[in-house]
Write a structure and sequence with these properties.
The structure holds 2 protein chains of 2 kinds. By secondary structure, chain A is an alpha/beta fold. Chain A is built from 7 helices and 7 strands, in the order E-H-E-H-E-E-H-E-H-E-H-E-H-H. Classes of the chains: A alpha/beta, B alpha+beta. At the A-B interface, strand 1, strand 2, strand 3, strand 4 and helix 3 of A face strand 2, helix 3, strand 5 and helix 5 of B. Chain B: InterPro entries: DUF742.
Chain lengths: 224, 118
């Protein structure tokens, strides 16, 4: 006989597909961009789960305030909350790539080190009609030393040349710049592949440099 | 639909973690994969039981937080309790830095293979 009532709500109908039992390595890529630029759309187009949303809060004791300020209880605390979307891609039996769509606004960057240390790299998603919206994100990624590429989501606005966009964003010629349609799975996939190929090139080059630089050059910098 | 965590009073969140607002929770990355090592037991805090059910297969910390509708900081504290009592195990991300913050080329090659096969 069925029980007429159930206290416990059924598992939400989202029914996320489970990861393989062998999954043991989570990887992160962050997609940064302003509101409405298509971050969630891009996550959705390649994710194996419907994008989920979560939030993180961090209470920061006033930084740079010395211990004395603590004694009278005046130490200021600020609480920062950011919400972000994410999706995931199972890469193989052991590796799972999580894609985070993150707002580029100021408070988000307080949480960067705690949440996104260990991130492989970032995609800065831009709307070419609002290039200035991306300046802050690019500045912060450079500050954190996180490698990134720029992907221009096609909103059918006026066409800019690559040079115009590079100049407006003030990015180095080495940073890949691609066009995409965030709604399209293969286009979003191409963006991610471009990022990871770029990271691979950087990483391989640094390793080679590290191996080759074991010898001279030190004298040049030492002179003062 | 109300969303726990966002609209709840802070008191409830405080109760969930037995009054702690932080603990040694930095061990849990957003993408640490959590695996249940036991079934929920009767009388267990319902959120703990929910975590154990959810983690019958590996589940990332961030997915647990989203599913429970609770802030990540609260979830990490609960996970630390479950880890301490041996009810879960944690598979931490391996993103060794090969050089100067950049990931190992071997890991990146694996990622590329996975992405191309999508």
């Amino acid at each position: 006989m069925d029980s007429a009532t159930s206290e416990r709500a059924a598992v939400p109908s989202t029914a996320r597909p489970s990861l393989a039992s062998t999954a043991d390595n989570g990887l992160k890529i962050v997609i940064v961009g302003g509101f409405g630029v298509g971050k969630t759309t891009m996550v959705r187009s390649v994710s194996e789960i419907r994008p989920l949303n979560t939030e993180e809060t961090m209470t920061r004791a006033g930084e740079g305030i010395d211990e004395l300020a603590d004694l009278d209880g005046l130490r200021r605390k600020t609480s920062t909350t950011v919400a972000f979307d994410f999706g995931r891609i199972s890469l193989d039996a052991r590796s799972v790539l999580y894609l985070f769509g993150a707002p580029g606004q100021e408070r988000f960057w307080f949480l960067w080190d705690r949440l996104f240390s260990g991130t492989l790299g970032a995609v800065v998603l831009v709307d070419t009609r609002r290039l200035a919206d991306s300046w802050y994100a690019i500045d912060r990624l450079e500050h954190h030393g996180t490698p990134f590429i720029v992907a221009c989501n096609d909103f059918g606005g006026p066409v800019h040349t690559e040079e115009q966009i590079r100049e407006a964003l003030d990015i180095s010629p080495d940073v890949p710049l691609v066009e995409c349609d965030a709604r399209d799975r293969s286009s979003s996939k191409y963006v991610l592949i471009t990022l990871v190929e770029y990271l691979h090139g950087l990483s391989a080059r640094r390793l080679a440099e590290a191996a080759g630089a074991a010898a001279p050059e030190t004298a040049v910098e030492a002179g003062s | 639909m109300s969303r726990p965590g966002r609209d709840d009073s802070p008191d409830r969140l405080y109760t969930l973690t037995q009054g702690r607002s932080r603990s040694d929770t930095d061990t849990f990355d957003l993408v640490t994969l959590v695996v249940a090592e036991s079934d929920p037991s009767p009388g267990m805090q319902s959120e703990h039981a929910a975590i154990l059910r959810m983690c019958r297969s590996p589940t990332a910390v961030v997915e647990i937080a989203a599913e429970l509708g609770l802030p990540g900081s609260i979830v990490r504290i609960m996970l630390a309790d479950l880890l301490d009592t041996g009810r879960i195990s944690a598979r931490h991300p391996r993103t060794e830095r090969a050089a100067d913050r950049l990931p190992d080329p071997d890991i990146l090659e694996q990622v590329l293979v996975g992405l191309r096969n999508l």
